[in-house]
Design a protein that fits this description.
mainly alpha; 66% helix; 216 residues
Length: 216
């Protein structure tokens, strides 16, 4: 347990989302007041209802096509954004302040570790620790579903932390059972860290300046 936590902590400290957060941290940037409203995308909903009425389906579709179902659909879409591989492993936050956009929130080399870790936790689901981690994984993206900006990193920090813990679980298993795969993943991880570090130091500040942002 302690070893898993230590490895998870190391993984967090080298993760792209954490390094960008440390670089750009400012207390006045933390705001989660822009919530998804019940009338979100109301124009699209009205257009869809008009089209259904024109097709003489207005009454039958009303229980399905309405602002409440539209709201739930919007929440579900934002919830699922947390699991989007593009956000997690390739591009990260769409706001340049919280992502270099040349890397995901996590390194791609974490993906096999996460998959192995998930398999181990699901296989041992009766264990209280495994059950807790899986439920936290499913619950932690819920707050992000109510925030209007898409793919926001800050509100997804608890989710990223639990994913990193799962990666640590998978890493330990691979280290014990599949050492060659572990070595290959570590080589890939080192390469990703070097590539990300170079971009973070040399090129990312220029992109921020071009966008009119500076967090030096």
């Amino acid at each position: 347990m302690k070893v898993t936590l230590i490895i998870a902590l190391i993984f967090v400290c080298i993760s792209p989302w954490f390094l960008v957060l440390v670089r750009n941290y400012r207390t006045d940037t933390f705001s989660f007041t822009d919530l998804v409203k019940l009338n979100e995308n109301i124009d699209e909903l009205n257009l869809e209802q008009t089209q259904l009425r024109d097709a003489h389906l207005g009454k039958t579709s009303r229980p399905i096509v309405n602002k409440y179902n539209n709201y739930l659909k919007s929440l579900l879409g934002r919830y699922l954004e947390s699991f989007d591989t593009s956000f997690l492993f390739f591009h990260g936050d769409i706001d340049l302040q919280w992502s270099t956009q040349t890397a995901g929130a996590l390194y791609l080399s974490f993906l096999p570790m996460i998959l192995v870790g998930l398999f181990i936790l699901i296989e041992s689901y009766k264990n209280i620790r495994s059950k807790t981690v899986i439920w936290i994984l499913l619950i932690s993206p819920i707050p992000a579903a109510f925030i209007k900006p898409h793919y926001q990193t800050l509100i997804r920090i608890p989710f990223l932390l639990v994913l990193t813990y799962i990666a640590a679980v998978g890493f330990i298993w691979l280290l014990k059972k599949r050492r060659l795969i572990t070595v290959l993943l570590l080589i890939l991880l080192i390469f990703e860290i070097a590539q990300f570090g170079h971009d973070l130091i040399r090129h990312y500040p220029r992109r921020l300046e071009n966008q009119g942002q500076s967090f030096q």
